[in-house]
Amino acid sequence: FKVILCRYRTRMRSTTAACRDMLIRLVLLRSILPAAWGLRLTGHEPLRDAASPYRQQMDNHGDVRYSADVKIGGSRFAALLDTGSYDVVVLDGTNQGSTADRVRTLPSFRLGVHADVRRYGSGSCDVVDGRAPVAIGQHEAEQDLWLSEHCQFQAQRQLPWEVVVGLAPPGKARYVARKELDKIHEKTVEFRTVKKAVPDSLKKEEQKWKDRLKLALSKTPLLERFGVTSFSACFESGPGRPAWLTWHDTQLPGRAGTMTLPVAGNVTWSIALRNLHLNGEVQALGCEDGCLAVLDTGTSFITVPRSVYERLQGRIWERLRQVGRCDHSMFPDIVMEVDGGSLRLPPDSYLGFRQGQMNAEVGQFMRQDEAFNSEEYLGCQLLMFELHDERTPLGPMIILGAPFFRTYYTAFDLGKGQSNRSVHFARTGGTCDLSKTKAGSALERLEETARQPRTVNISEAQTPQWLTSRVDISI
Question: 294 with 379, same domain?
């Protein structure tokens, strides 16, 4: 009542000193409350400018998997920050305790009405949709997510994360649904042109994709929800060293030594490349007519077509016979030609030692090279995945996984829309600190700080599980 009376007297120009003091205190209180609210939300400090850079550490798990912290409904969860997938997916309890149940019981979680099935390399999960506050760094927003339940896997594995945060370019579900509806429309026109009834099966298929499009339009991807248009990924090169994902990273564009390439796919972070070959050799390993390479922070190894794998395997056998030891200094880079130059993968990206038992999921992408286990080769093996026949409109598919991000600091730029997305590359220098990396050398051979090949446990390797959800060759 006193505040109302003071405001009235102020308008009537009959205010008193006491009223003026009260209104001043009210204005100050309003200025303090937002900061206090930010403190309560984050649990650390007041919310900063949402567009300011935020460098987030990813913990290293055996040089094959990386995880970072996110908050859902105020509770902390370990997450895979995955440039190869699209949604925020909470894993089923069979994978990691009772993660899905924990999220369900959060006071701020709201269960949706939609259900779906997610297929992975080792099995499938029923999923249901929902919404909860998700916080990463200075970002916090009500986020659409999916909860896994009733999973059926060939073998259970203990994962270092409980949530998968998809960072692929937004819009895959919308794009795929519209493309399928276009195909159905063409078929419908064909039937009507020859005056035939449209089959009920086609009508049902059309309704299914209309429903999926409606659902996709109702969901907002995390990048859009957070207003993030650029971010970067860089993995420190030393064994056991962490990786970093920087939100709102704008350091690379215009920096000396940076290579910028347009995104070649419609729904992936991908680039066009050609003529894979070993440095110093003329004969190509593959991609003479072009390949499409997907940049995927969630895949443990470089992944190549079977034909490329077999040719590389033969060349490495020959080199091992010549040098007699698994010394990276004795092996060449893999060179990938791109518009305006080339990108190189040092031997550490594809050669080393394996340990552990290969499970069924990893066995779909990695072959057991018994010949490499002989004393003649001292156990030195290819640390790569292979694809059997994954095609794209630009040729065979390649996946640039974790080893690529140890070699190149990679920045992802959404630009102004689907038609002008780009990716920027600069050599890492092994530390992911651009201030300590010599500019102007992104295309030079990377000097290796360690000649000792790394040893990885292949039973913990992470495969490109998003491949199993592909509807067609769209990429």
Answer: yes
Pairing of strands 384-387, 302-305: parallel
pTM across the whole model: 0.83
In terms of domains, do 328 and 191 share one? no
Do 153 and 190 fall within a single domain? no
- Outline where 278-376 has alpha helix (H): 306-323, 360-363
Please name the residue that has the structure tokens 């995927």. 296
In a domain, 161, yes or no: yes
Does a structural domain hold residue 398?
Answer: yes
Give helix 2-11 / helix 17-42 axis angle, nearest 10°: 120
Indicate if 102 and 212 belong to the same structural domain.
no
Q: In terms of domains, do 319 and 280 share one?
A: yes
For residue 13, count CB atoms less than 10 angstroms from its CB and return exposed for 0-12, middle for 13-18, buried for 19 or more: exposed
Instruction: Verify that 195 and 115 share a domain, yes or no.
Output: no
Residue 190 belongs to domain spanning: 172-220
Query: In 2-100, at which residue ranges do the beta strands (DSSP E only) sit?
Result: 54-61, 65-72, 75-82, 88-90
The tokens 């992975």 sit on which residue? 120
Alpha-carbon gap, residue 165 to 186, rounded angstroms: 36
Per-residue pLDDT of the chain (475 residues; tens, 9 = 90+): 444 445 444 444 444 555 555 544 544 344 333 333 333 333 333 334 567 889 999 999 999 999 999 999 999 999 999 999 889 999 875 444 578 888 999 999 999 999 888 776 556 788 899 999 999 988 999 999 999 887 776 555 678 889 999 999 998 888 889 999 999 999 999 999 999 999 999 999 999 999 999 999 999 999 999 999 999 999 999 899 999 999 999 988 888 889 999 999 888 999 999 999 999 888 899 999 999 999 999 999 999 999 999 999 999 888 888 887 788 888 999 999 999 899 999 999 999 988 888 888 888 898 876 555 555 555 688 999 999 878 888 999 999 999 999 999 999 999 888 788 999 999 887 889 887 765 544 334 344 444 578 899 998 999 887 776 665 566 7
- CATH number, domain of 390, equals 2.40.70.10
